[in-house]
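Quick one:
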Amino acid sequence: MPHLQDSNSLPDTIRSIPRDDDPVTESDINFYDYDGSLVYSYSFSEAAVLSSLPAIPTHGGLVAQGWTHTLSHICNAASNEKPVNVGTMYITDDGCTRLYMYLTDENYISPSLTLAIAGSLTLTVDWGDGTVPDTLTSSGTLSHTWDVSSFPSTVVIRISASGTGSFTIGNGLKPLFSSSVYDVYGKMLNKVEFGDKTNTITAHSFRQCYNLQSVSLPAGVTNINEQAFNDCLSLTGFVIPVGVTRISSAAFQSCGLLRSAVIPESVISIENGAFQNCISLDGVVIPDGVTIISGYVFRNCYSLQRIHVPDSVTEISFQAFSICRKLEFFAISETVVQIGNNAFSNCILLSKVAIPDTITRINEYTFDGCSTLREVVISDSVTSIGTRSFGFCYNLYKLDLSAYTDPDALPVLASIEALYAAPSNQTIYVANQTMLNAFRAATNWSNFATRFRVKEA
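Output:
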C-alpha cells in the first residue's frame, strides 16, 4: 500500500505526502526526486485512478520542469500492471550551470576546466571566490587559482552562456578538469546543477568524481555519452530527463551507491555496461521502445531485485544480468528471440525459468552458476543447448522437455557439461514413451538416460 492513502476524501497530491512516522517505501509506481529520494509511491490500483500528478519537491535555486512521465502514461501503465519509476526534472533559476566544489587542501587550488562550444556562444565562468570571471568564445580550457583564506571551504563555479548554440563540460576526450592531478579536483566536486544551453553530457566528463553526490539534468539533454559518470562512487540516485534517447556504454558503470535510476520513455538505447557494477541498484524499469538489453548492462548489480523488461525487447545480450545475486524471478517475454552467452550466469537466487517458443538456442553458460534454479521449462522451438548452459545449477531437480513430440527433432545437447554438476536425482520430463526412448539414445542425452521420466498428464 502507498503511504497516506488512508482517506479517499483527500486530494491525491495531499494523500501522498509522507509523514515523519510513515516513511515512503517502494511500491508499483514510484516517484523519485533528482537525488534519488523516494517521495511518493502507489500500488497499481491507486495509481490507475490518479486524477493529477503529485506535487514536485521544491529546491532553492532550481525551477521544476515537471515529472518524467505523464499522468496518462502512469494511469495506463498501472491499469495494465506495468511498473513505472518517475523522476523530477529541474533547471537552474538563473540558467547557469553550477559546480559545487569542496576545497580541502590549500596545495590544490588551481584547477583547469575544459569546456567545448558549438555555435556562437560566449561562456562566462565565475569561479565563486569573488575574483573577476573569465570568458571563453571557443572550445578550450580555463585555468584559475582560487582566492580563499580558509580551508576547508566551499565554492560554487557558475557557468553562464549567451548567444546561440550549446556547450558541454569536458570535450569528450577527457574529464572536466584537465590536470595531471585530475583526481584531486574531481574528488572536490560534490554537486552539479545544470542550466540551459547544454544538450549533451560528454564522454568521460564526470568520470571518477568520487564524491559527486547529486546531479540535476534539465529536459532538453539528449545524450549521456560513454563513461560520463563512470566511478561516481557517491551518487545514490539519478533521474535521466525526458529527451535523452541513448545511454551510452559504461555511462554509470561502477556507481557503487547508486540505488535508483529513472529512465524516461524517450530512451530507446541502453548500451554495453551502462549500469555494470552498480552494486546497490535494486530496481529498474526499462522503457518501451528499447529493443536490446545490451551486453554487461546490469552485470554485477548485486542488489537488483526488481526489473521490468518491456515487450519491445527482442534480445538479451551476453552477460546482461550476470551476477545479479538477488534476482529471484525473471519473465522472458515471448518477443525475445535471442539470449546471449552468460546472460543470467551466477544469478544465485533465480529459482525458475521458462524458455518461450521464440528462442531457438540456449547459448553457452546462459544460466551457469544459478545455484538456486530448481525448474526449467524448455519450448520445442529450442534446437540446441550450449555447453555449461545449466552448469553448476546444483538444485536443478526438474528439467521439462515435454514440449518435444517429434523423435526426429530433438534439441542438440552440445556436451554433457550443459548439465554439469546438476543433482544426480534430477528428473528430466518428456512427453511419452517414444520420446523417452529417443532421448535416451541421443548423443550426449544418453549420459543422463536414468533421469528421464514420462510426464504425467
